[in-house]
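agent> fetching stored inputs for the pyridoxal-5'-phosphate docking request
agent> found them:
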Amino acid sequence: MANETIFDISQPNRIAHAQCPESGSLADLPPNCVRKTPPLIPEVSEIQAIRHYTNLSQQNFAIDRNFYPLGSCTMKYNPRGAHRVASLPGFLNRHPLTAASASQGVLECLFDLQEILAVVTGTDAVSLAPMAGAQGELAGLLMIRAYHNEQGDTDRDEVIIPTAAHGTNPATATMCGYKVAEVQVGGDGDVDLEDLKRTVSSRTAAIMLTNPSTCAVFERQITEISDVVHDAGGLLYYDGANLNAILGKICPGNMGFDVLHLNLHKTFATPHGGGGPGAGPVAVNNRLARFLPIPVVGFVDNQFDWLGEQQLPQTIGRLSAFMGNTGILIRALAYALMLGREGMVRVAEHATLNANYLAKELERVGFTLAYPNRKATHEFLVTLTSEAKDLQVRAMDFAKRLLDFGIHAPTTYFPLLVPECLLIEPTETECKEQLDEFVDAMKHIREEAVNDPDTVRGAPHGLYRKRLDEVQAARELDLAWSPPDDES
Amino acid sequence: MANETIFDISQPNRIAHAQCPESGSLADLPPNCVRKTPPLIPEVSEIQAIRHYTNLSQQNFAIDRNFYPLGSCTMKYNPRGAHRVASLPGFLNRHPLTAASASQGVLECLFDLQEILAVVTGTDAVSLAPMAGAQGELAGLLMIRAYHNEQGDTDRDEVIIPTAAHGTNPATATMCGYKVAEVQVGGDGDVDLEDLKRTVSSRTAAIMLTNPSTCAVFERQITEISDVVHDAGGLLYYDGANLNAILGKICPGNMGFDVLHLNLHKTFATPHGGGGPGAGPVAVNNRLARFLPIPVVGFVDNQFDWLGEQQLPQTIGRLSAFMGNTGILIRALAYALMLGREGMVRVAEHATLNANYLAKELERVGFTLAYPNRKATHEFLVTLTSEAKDLQVRAMDFAKRLLDFGIHAPTTYFPLLVPECLLIEPTETECKEQLDEFVDAMKHIREEAVNDPDTVRGAPHGLYRKRLDEVQAARELDLAWSPPDDES
Amino acid sequence: MPFIPHTLRDVNSMLDSIGASSVEELFSEIPNSIERTQLMGIQRGVPEMEMTRRLAERAKKDEVGPCFMGAGCYDHHIPAAVWDLASRGEFLTPYTPYQAEASQGTLQLLYEFQTMMSSLTGMDVANASVYDGGSGLAEAILMAIRCNRKATSRRVLVCGGVNPLYVQAARTLVSSQGIELIQCPHEKGTHTIESLSGGDFAALVVQQPNFFGQLENVDAISDWTKSHNALLVAVVNPITLPVLSPPGEWGRQGADICCGDGQPLGIPMASGGPSFGFLCTNMPYVRQLPGRIVGRTKDRDGEIGYTLTLQAREQHIRRAKATSNICTNQGLLVTAATIYLSLVGLRGIQSVASACHANTTNLVNRLCRSDQIERTFSGEFFHEAAVDLHCDAQFVADKLLDRHGIVAGLPLGQVFSDLQSSLLVCATEKRTEQEIEHFSDALQECVADG
Amino acid sequence: MPFIPHTLRDVNSMLDSIGASSVEELFSEIPNSIERTQLMGIQRGVPEMEMTRRLAERAKKDEVGPCFMGAGCYDHHIPAAVWDLASRGEFLTPYTPYQAEASQGTLQLLYEFQTMMSSLTGMDVANASVYDGGSGLAEAILMAIRCNRKATSRRVLVCGGVNPLYVQAARTLVSSQGIELIQCPHEKGTHTIESLSGGDFAALVVQQPNFFGQLENVDAISDWTKSHNALLVAVVNPITLPVLSPPGEWGRQGADICCGDGQPLGIPMASGGPSFGFLCTNMPYVRQLPGRIVGRTKDRDGEIGYTLTLQAREQHIRRAKATSNICTNQGLLVTAATIYLSLVGLRGIQSVASACHANTTNLVNRLCRSDQIERTFSGEFFHEAAVDLHCDAQFVADKLLDRHGIVAGLPLGQVFSDLQSSLLVCATEKRTEQEIEHFSDALQECVADG
Ligand SMILES: Cc1ncc(COP(=O)(O)O)c(C=O)c1O
Ligand SMILES: Cc1ncc(COP(=O)(O)O)c(C=O)c1O
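agent> prediction call returned; pasting tokens
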């Protein structure tokens, strides 16, 4: 039972009648266009489907059930009120191509969000089109490319990226036809400025940075970096994944960035949905505004309207068939309205307070911080090199063992730069008691690692499944179910 | 963590700001009216509340997760579509006292449901006012009393009820000021007709019957019973809890019943909500129609309207402040519309098929049916007297052990008449595979009862809690949380 | 066959196993003399899609503008999380938690509910719900009669300020047990102890704030009742209790039984139901409390757990001698109310209460600026008030609905023949300044016209 | 401070522990030279209640009547259970299932999704989603270029019947990799192999049914493409696949890559997003597939379980050499689609498809009874069709929206300058006979006026 897929419980000719409209004739279709064998779609009753997926859902950890200190992901509370407004029939039933005259509600929402995001990022113009952070990055680099091209600066074929950067940064550079030039990160977590100076050149199109960086510290030389890159004719791209750390305190625009994306599914509290959807709006200063991806929302002739290729002839173009993940954008607006200006500052403050408290408490019980002399930002890095070496208990073992305590694992082995690391981000929506519980669990596991290391190495023990064999998964690829008969 | 109440995680001055409207002044209230010490209401963040109740919910069995063969309760699939329509803003935001002119939508729904229920019960008039089966029973007996009173028949102070009847029947009779006269049930599950003849008299106001009876068999002498009671001047009350067994096949009106209630939360698939709400509409033939509880919905002057005391001056009156459980009534209508006439018959047919199949299979693996010579109806009774005697494993032990298999326990020890019984009602929405799984589990438990009885007696083992101490609960009453300090 | 999973093959193999040749054969014990149902007039079934279309069309018809009606049912804000959680299958679709081990979620929640309700009312214990406020009053009265062993009378005094719809329901439900409900007329909207009729009585029922929104002198009424050896039954609106003095503290001894409707706690108006009734009392009377009660206990391993308790009060055990016939209650709504209280929290619920008071005060003040409108009664009110329009209030209300889509308050003439020109209005925390202004302008206009 | 649980006491005790005297001190590493944000123009926060009121007012503005627009986004019926389940916190609020043991629910569901998608398309494997149909086409094109090792050309032929919005998106997204998208004009709404331009090319993209709703001769196009050693990229609407021949079976060898948008499978239109893109291919190319893939495996106890696999294709492992930069995808929508397919089931989904075809046929027949209206193209269509109104289609559509609240189809002039008088209409299974009749009458009236 527990193990069954929906196909195992399917039975030929079982029909969920309440979900069957009256069928129509297909006799007029050309026979060669008509399907010959039916696809593998389950044949179950409604209650079977409901039980199957209700029971499956219970096998998941989720923000609604667990503390989720997953560094770089900002797993904060996802307000249910935002989910409800985005689900109002007027928003939910709107066809994307409905005329603007009958879409003033949603257009006003998007317009307001553009304005808010411009203010919090300290930029001049925003496009909400990108559907996630990575697409925002791509849009950003395409704008940078368009800018250089316009300047006749066509030889710039390199994007500089710190070694510690998130994987989407180099992947995006490649997708955008750029070569990646890596720049080293120093022992204190800041970019190695000397190495940067060696790396920049007339081939530098841009540098991509997160700040606070993926080393979970604030990049203190940001102004110097900005000068070095700008002086070389390059632009500064801000990966907004860590915006939660500075929301309402300082903004990328004031740090010298020319273009950036936000991850609304991080900073603006939209749910991660078990993998997505997100939204990755891009914000730019005036020199790049004309390149923004379409559609953008404008206020023209006393009504809100879409701005497309006609109004923005230099746009890099469209990124999706319609307007990105509009439903996520509405959720983000709802969140922004509830926060308000005073709420935004408090996000950064309490996210930072929680991270610093947690870092200090973990240090107190014996863990090693990767950057002990630095302040934590909204997150921080613990390194378990000594545990790995002395006890043969690795960061992944700690992570898996935490699951047994009902706590989701922190991000492991990212950034690659820091060996055996855990990147821990508590977010501002967790209370002190929860943080203390986490410290207790970590302390407990550390003691286990000494006294009973197999328990840690064999974790998790109390979940629906024990540790899964990833090697087998990759070696004996089984990516789709087939009937038991076919398997033999 | 696992054990914590919401009060344990509450902390003074923690505020869920997004749920706080701007507060107003209370300075103008007389000081003696104002509360001095704040009540014990949790002070938690939104995410704490959400996690707490999400995690609690996972400790429940439910139709959406488990097979629930709970006899007499008709735990069938509760269509989500019905839940959605009842939650439409027009229905959900309607103030109960809004004028009929702005309530035609809901009034039409209630009117249609009245009509449908009259047809399926074979009666002349319906009131949807009662909020559950038990209130329907009370309304029914009040109508019977009103009828006899009107006839000047004021000495009728007894209601006849079979010994096997559901507890609400005698309890209702008492609430209605009647004495209960019990009538015996024979060895084949039918009412002892001779005993009935001895029991009826000029003091008989009515007999209350379920058919199929609470012994899970069809009362074959129903016509004779009807004659005996009617001849004595009494009326026949039909407890509709078991209507699922005959829906669309035969109706109480054709069996001689004068008045009845339906349990829409059984037969019409509205969810049980962990205890309620339900709806217990009453249906009557013409001689009782003028006594129906108000409000009733009528169609007058080309619009739907409430009928109240003015239109029904002989009504027994109002049963609740407004119109019973309207939201449940809308769900029932939605279900009825989806079933349609052909669907209704199929309910009874497949409920009966499932019960007979399950009874036969259980018999095959060695269980004893309480009425082996009778056909099962929509449910059937197994008796575990031999298991209790030979193996000291009781019906309750079987019931608790089933929980370990992810199957909810059947109804135990009801009717009281049949010792060590399980009343098993699979309902029509369960598939054959599910029934087979149940048989396997029962067979397995029976083997355990022989080879490893302690496992059965100690069950459940795999749930969130082991068997609970009900004696302690009743002896050391702890009905409300108090802070740990207060407890010592 | 919506919702029926059987394939033809299933049916045949099951019939084989049973040894029957047709499904019809399974019904062979039904005497042929009983005519088969025809289901005349019932249409063929439609899929969910079509059913939804039809009912959505009807629901659409009933959409109206802002609601200024109270009178026992209130338009409060409901946080989205409340029903997102309460509608989870695990809360929505279980049966009554008789199998405690498989129901710890619902049971613990009910225990938390009992705690909040008993604290809100200042009483020792709360049950796990009765049907609604009206039937709840009936249960409270029956309970008072059972509890007051000293009283010989079966008369119960009912203040004129008690919700008349509750009184009507209670009258129906207690009518056949020889209990007499004696209505004590209010004096200008409230009761003084001088106005309460004497004579023998077993209990007195008072509502705070009363049906007109007015605050009664509950301390005096409580003491007077106790001085007559009668039990005090309090009817309250739970949303007021975070800021109003709780029944348990009224007068020197407090109320004995407290009831009311839980709708204001996160339950949509939904035409008045389902909501839930609550019933609280003190320890000495707990065995007379009807309905389900959850107790905290231990399991075999000594872990804390929860179970239904004191079941010997109930119909399934006690049958004809039970405290009530209630079986199915309003569990899901209690689930929602418990989540509501937890989400909104102490400070939130205090704010909601005070905002309701402030909004209604604002509304009444605005209305009374008109020459034609004044308060029907003087004295303090909480979040409802009767205003005298000096013209046919029903006519005005109909016009407001028609012209502006506003659900004006209740024309009191519908329930009190001497108050034809009064309207009972309410402005919850949900009503905005603009809505209040618009309503008050529109009302004044209609009054001027009428 | 909405959503922040800290009390003043918490803050102080945490600062104590850190050894900081203020929260501000924690930001001391930020150089003073960086100007602090002012948040000028951002208003003070409002509670959920007020936020809801404001946005509900806006949503209300956008409510319109029945929708006859398709063009890549379709108004299908969504069973209530789909989103009741998909909105459960356990599906809505987890992160990507990197921690497999804590994510078996989502992982098994994705495995089931991959199974259904690969079977629907007749391909070996499906990934766990890309953003949408448009960006999905871009990924498919990039993938085709990577897969076609034999090809020297980076040219891709794109049939004129491919959704122009998809092509626009794809153009943006592949533009900087030196890939050339060559548009092959359609001939009267479809393509014959004669009309397909030759020259060197690495892949060809064809859509079935195409943007005009027309059925292409995919067998011939597939065979022709293969004969040029090019890869075939199929763009499909999944709702048609239960009844239309799957891309895996087109021609002698079938398509190599298949993409499209999953919106028709239980996803609300919601202004076009979020929905999800899907991407399928055959085993030989699986390592070129971008996005997440779930594999079935065993746990330590030998129990079947699921995990993300082949991660070496992805950005977090492979960085600059990854198959794509995609990270966050559209998981929740895939959850909904999987539940949708399971609930509706094989028979249901076949009925939906055939009912859409029948309804659109009915609509087109009705429209064409008018002298002024005829089909723009001949040939078979599935559930969309272009009709020529012989007048300004945009004008007519605007009038229908204005006068009747009907979302008429797409005026094709918006995307094809040579089709100003044509309207692309669609009637899904949700449109009733009456709605179709009303629309067709109203349209004919507007055309007669215009
Ligand atoms: C630092 C950083 N950059 C970029 C991304 C990519 O964003 P998305 O997943 O929204 O595409 C992430 C997401 O995990 C991230 O943490
Ligand atoms: C036979 C029978 N009669 C009456 C009732 C009482 O109905 P309700 O719980 O709706 O009050 C029940 C409910 O369990 C029942 O099974």
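agent> quick read of the result: Chain B has a mean pLDDT of 97.
agent> awaiting further instructions
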